[in-house]
Specification:
InterPro entries: NAD(P)-bd_dom_sf, Sc_DH/Rdtase_CS, SDR, SDR_fam. By secondary structure, the chain is α/β, with parallel strands linked by helices. The protein contains 7 helices and 7 strands; from the N terminus they run βαβαβαβαβαβααβ. Strands 3-2-1-4-5-6-7 form a 7-stranded parallel beta sheet, sandwiched between helices.
Length: 242
């Protein structure tokens, strides 16, 4: 059985991960926070290409409280891989961010992924070669001005993964982080084309990452042959910043 849940499957990186894992034979839960039509369309497209696998859209508000999270987990068919590709940011000075915005970023990027990990642990431990992959960020290693809270959550998920991996490693249950640099997705739509061109010039590889270049590493980590790699943050940045 190869079934994974991709949280944030309708985002730019999430969709690329879904397409890559489907090609590798995974059945998938395709999570969305609010974009249900996108999740349904992605599921239909993948089912057309891979009719022997299951692709199920599923919805959960990542600001949910514990009871809703637990009900969500109890409603899942068994999974042996979890990919946390959801994430939000707010590009502004800390002094101008409200407590509500700060709480939202922490809950979506760090608090609820940790809680869901705890809730999913029992079923993951029942399978050989279970996997968790979190999408981190280069800013988890090199904090970004104007994204201080976001940087803190991404640094936090790397340290959490490092520690938690040691708790479950003997069960061939690996926990890792793929930390992209600048990726050509809608999250960067706030910046002008000129600003993105200038950013690309700072990156030794010469361009922003394509989402599929991130999805490749998630697929590698889900492979059964990657049992010995755990607790790591893999920076996929084109040589930038890290």
């Amino acid at each position: 059985m190869k079934r994974a849940i991709i949280f944030g499957a309708t985002g730019g990186i999430g969709q690329a991960i879904a397409k890559r894992l489907a090609k590798s034979g995974w059945s998938l839960y395709l999570h969305c926070n609010s974009n249900w039509n996108e999740a349904e369309n992605l599921a239909t497209s993948l089912m057309d290409q891979y009719p022997s696998q299951d692709f199920l859209p599923i919805k959960l508000n990542f600001l949910a409280e514990d009871e809703e999270l637990l009900a969500f987990v109890k409603g899942l068919l068994p999974v042996n891989a979890v990919v946390f590709a959801q994430g939000i940011t707010n590009y502004d000075f800390l002094g101008r961010q409200s407590s509500e915005i700060i709480d939202r970023i922490i809950k979506v990027n760090l608090e609820n992924p940790i809680k869901l990990t705890k809730m999913l642990e029992d079923q993951l431990l029942k399978h050989d070669h279970s996997r968790i992959v979190y999408l981190g960020s280069v800013y988890g290693g090199q904090g970004s001005a104007m994204e201080a809270v976001y940087s803190a959550t991404k640094g936090g998920i790397s340290r959490f993964a490092q520690a938690y991996a040691r708790e479950v490693a003997s069960s061939r249950f690996t926990v890792n982080v793929v930390a992209p640099g600048a990726v050509n997705t809608a999250m960067n739509a706030m910046f002008s084309a000129e600003a993105l061109d200038e950013l690309a010039e700072e990156i030794p590889a010469g361009h922003l990452a394509k989402p599929k270049e991130i999805a490749y590493w998630v697929d590698c980590l889900l492979n059964p042959e990657s049992d010995y790699l755990t607790g790591q943050t893999i920076y996929v940045t084109g040589g930038w910043l890290e």
